[in-house]
Amino acid sequence: MAGSGRVRARPNILVTGTPGTGKTTTCSLLVDATQLRHINVGELVKAKNLHDGWDEEFECDIINEELVCDELEDKMEDGGYVVDYHGCDFFPEHWFDRVVVLQTDNSILHDRLTSRGYMGAKLMNNIECEIFQVLLEEARSSYAENVVVAMQSNSVEDISNNVATLAEWANNWRPDGS
């Protein structure tokens, strides 16, 4: 396995959540506060064609999870990344030292998604995903309990507080877990 046996000097953080919860904003601010590097998986999929076509119903690329993992493997082994994606269960568990699930109240999320042009099945699917905490459950079933953290992301103040908390954690992180 490529990269096995390496000790990361910097942590890897996965920021996940329903579209519209503030993942990219949080990641961008966290990168500024920590000097970690940002990987937006959605942009990576588009840039490197790591997909198996287009989903007409949900108006998005059908990502090829195996290709994405192959593309990211060496970087994740080296450490120092903040990964931004709305799913999390296909990434290898050992890649991440912290998995953050951003959560947003449904009325706020509905407004954010409709302002992005989401409607119909795409809008309802994402709202239901948040109502039923699908991504939090996915994270909890895919990663160790002490790695997963749920954070509210309803306001600029929430995002600022989340970034401060995560930056403090990342800047004090040690490879041996102490």
From TrEMBL:
Its localization reads: Cytoplasm; Nucleus
One cellular-component annotation, GO: cytoplasm
- For ATP, which residues are the binding ones? 20, 22-25, 116
Q: What reaction does this catalyse? A: AMP + ATP = 2 ADP; ATP + H2O = ADP + phosphate + H(+)
Q: Which residues cross the membrane?
A: none
Report the domain of life of the source organism: Eukaryota
Please name the InterPro entries in this protein's record. Adenyl_kinase_AK6, P-loop_NTPase
Q: Where is this region: NMPbind?
A: 40-63
Q: What subunit structure does UniProt give?
A: Interacts with small ribosomal subunit protein uS11. Not a structural component of 43S pre-ribosomes, but transiently interacts with them by binding to uS11.
Q: State the PANTHER family in the record.
A: ADENYLATE KINASE ISOENZYME 6, POS9-ACTIVATING FACTOR FAP7-RELATED
Please report which protein family the annotation says this sequence is part of: Belongs to the adenylate kinase family. AK6 subfamily.
Full protein name:
Adenylate kinase isoenzyme 6 homolog
UniProt organism field = Vanilla planifolia (Vanilla)
